[in-house]
Specification:
alpha+beta, Aminopeptidase, six-stranded mixed beta sheet, about 30% helix, about 25% strand, hydrolase activity
Length: about 375
């Protein structure tokens, strides 16, 4: 494979390396981030970085690179795209073609987030001779598993301290300095099967779940609606799935449901998920409850490096979704999300990024690096 001659060719190569998150139904055998990590490690070494592959899960490493400064003690800036993509199931285009057509590059990850990653990488390549002499020490991390459970960002945030983090996401080159927290609230009830002609002899797991979901739709929903943020609006919840029983004339002995919860920063307090679980157990003592929450993000928009991003043309905004930035912020590291392209194209059946947006990303990150 020849070296890419420009950012378009780089993105095409990244899209052609399948790196689908294995969670759920990936829709392909091309799962995991190992091949992508190997490619990135070689590219980064070629432009002067010291590179480590830090395995987080089996054959699923983070790629961690740094350009040592000309003196010790410089503040660290991390550029952090993720290397995995969502499933390719149901796509209407060839997911790994990287086709250049109609001024766009097509394929899974072109928008989320291999396009923003390519812009970062090409800007680093173009500015590689000046990186060691900047006032900040530059780091790059290709983070695995952002699309499910965020293992990569959680691991790196626990291992290293950074003074500023930019998680690459397709934000239209706006600075997402705040976003909602998120939790998938998983509920399971159990009962006792029996013939539906004698429901009194069984125990209906769906009835139990309906009692629990009634609390979600009334008490919890009212609480969420009252929690408002001047940038992000209110907290929200949505019952996303429900599944139970096996046949109409059998009393159901199980029921499962999931609730999508999105929290504005002031609402997301320690113990909030435990409080919800305890309330449901008052209604259904044997309900099983679990969640893996991601915290909200808030970085003060007056931060000096957000001001430098502003000098490059990026304005601070909020977002209803969440990303890897929050796990660094949770540990006291100022973090934002930023990159070229539109979030509206992420996860779509015909994902793409416009070449003009990709090239604008290179120019933007090049200007920002010059201000460091």
């Amino acid at each position: 494979m020849s070296a890419p001659r420009n950012v378009v060719e780089l993105l095409q190569e990244l899209v052609r390396i399948p790196s689908v998150n294995p969670h759920g139904d990936p829709g392909t055998d091309g799962i995991g981030e190992a091949r992508m990590a190997g490619y990135l490690a070689e590219f980064l070494r070629d432009i002067g970085a010291e590179v480590e592959l830090r395995e987080v899960l089996l054959d699923r490493p983070n790629v961690v690179a740094r350009w040592p400064g000309d003196r010790a003690g410089k503040p660290r800036v991390l550029l952090a795209p993720h290397t995995d993509t969502v499933s390719v199931g149901g796509m209407s285009i060839a997911p790994f073609s990287g086709e250049l057509r109609d001024g766009k590059i097509w394929g899974r990850g072109a928008s989320d987030t291999k396009g923003p990653m390519a812009s970062m990488l090409w800007a680093l390549k173009e500015n590689r001779e000046k990186l060691s002499g900047l006032e900040h020490e530059i780091w790059f991390a290709g983070l695995m598993s952002e699309e499910a459970d965020q293992h990569g960002s959680r691991a790196l945030a626990a291992q290293e301290h950074f003074d500023f983090v930019i998680a690459a996401e397709p934000t239209g080159l706006e600075v997402v300095h705040t976003h909602k927290g998120s939790a998938f609230f998983n509920l399971r009830t159990t009962g006792r099967a029996g013939h539906a002609s004698r429901p009194d002899l069984g125990s209906n797991a769906i009835d139990k779940m309906l009692d629990a979901l009634a609390i979600v739709r009334t008490e919890f929903a009212a609480e969420f609606a009252q929690q408002r943020d001047p940038v992000l609006g209110c907290s929200t919840l949505s019952i996303g799935t429900i599944r139970g029983g096996t046949k109409t004339n059998i009393i159901p002995d199980f029921c499962e449901a999931t609730v999508d919860m999105r929290f504005v920063p002031a609402h997301y307090q320690p113990g909030i998920m435990e409080r919800f679980g305890q309330r449901l157990k008052q209604v259904c003592p044997d309900i099983e409850v679990s969640s893996t929450p991601a915290p909200p993000l808030y970085t003060d928009p007056s931060h000096p490096l957000i001001a430098k991003l502003g000098e490059c043309g990026a304005k601070p905004v909020g977002a209803p979704w969440f990303c890897d930035a929050c796990f660094f912020a949770e540990r006291g590291m100022p973090a934002v999300a930023l990159g070229p392209g539109s979030i509206a194209q992420a996860h779509t059946r015909d994902e793409y990024i416009a070449v003009a947006d990709l090239e604008a990303g290179v120019e933007f990150f090049g200007r920002f690096i010059g201000k460091l």
